[in-house]
Amino acid sequence: MPVLGLGTWQNADPEACVESVRAALETGYRHVDTAQAYDNESSVGEGIAAADVDREDVFLATKVWIDQLAGDDVVESTEASLDRLGVDYLDLLYVHWPAGDYDPAETLSAFEELRAEGRIDRIGVSNFEPEHLEEARSAIDAPIFANQVEMHPLLQQANLREYCAEADIELVAYSPLARGEVFDVDVLSDIAADHGVSEAQVSLAWLREKGVTAIPKATGVDHIEDNWASLGLELTDEEVARIDAIDREERLIDPDFAPDGW
User: Fold this and answer.
1) Tens of pLDDT along 93-112?
2) Active-site annotation holds for 89
3) 29, 38, 163, 174: which is the annotated catalytic residue?
4) Measured in whole angstroms, how far is the alpha carbon of residue 10 from the centre of its chain?
C-alpha cells in the first residue's frame, strides 16, 4: 500500500473529483481512497480511467456504509461499488464503522467471501478501537490488513498505534491535516519554516515517520502537489520528538453512531 494516498471525502462535485483524481495520479500518487457514503465512486472511477496510469498500478480502496453491513448487503453493495468505479476488483475494502448493521462474524465473513472470489484483495476496517479489532480478528481466518482512523499531530493515537504494530495491522490516517488546524500549531509552523515547507508537509512527514499511511483530501492541483512533496521531507529525531510532545487530543470526526467511549 503506497504510504501517501488521495482522500476524496467531501469531494462531491463530479467534475472537480474526476480532475483531482486524474491530476493526483499523473503527479505520482498511486493510492486513491473513497467510500460508498462519499457519493463519488463514479467520479473517482472516471478520474482513474482518465489518467495515463494503468489500473493495476493504482491501489484503490472503498468502504461499505453502515446500512449495508449485513452479509448479503455487503456483497451486493460491493458489486455496485465496483460497477460505479468501473473496475473488476478492489485492492482494499473497509468496514466504514463498527456501527449500524455491523456484526463481526456475518459482516466479515461476507468480506472473506469477496476476497475468495477475487473481488477484493485485502480486508480493512475503519474507526475501530483495539476491542473491535480483537473481535474482528477472531471472527475470520483472513487477516485484517488495515484500520483507517482519524490521526494527525493533534490526535496521535498512541495506544492504537501500539496495538496495530503488535497485530501487524496497517494504520491509515484520514483527516491527517486536522481539517486545516495543523496550520495554526506553532510547533509545526516553526519546523515548516526551518525547512521552507508547509505545515501540511510536516504533518504528513511525521505520520510517515510513525509508519502510518496518510490520505489527505485535496482538490486543487497546488494542494495535491504540496502534499506529494512531503515524501521528500525528512524530519530529524528532535523534530519528531517536538511533534510527539504536542499535548492535545482533538477528535474532529465524532458522529452519533461512533463507538462508545472512544
Assistant:
1) 999 999 999 999 999 999 99
2) no
3) 38
4) 14
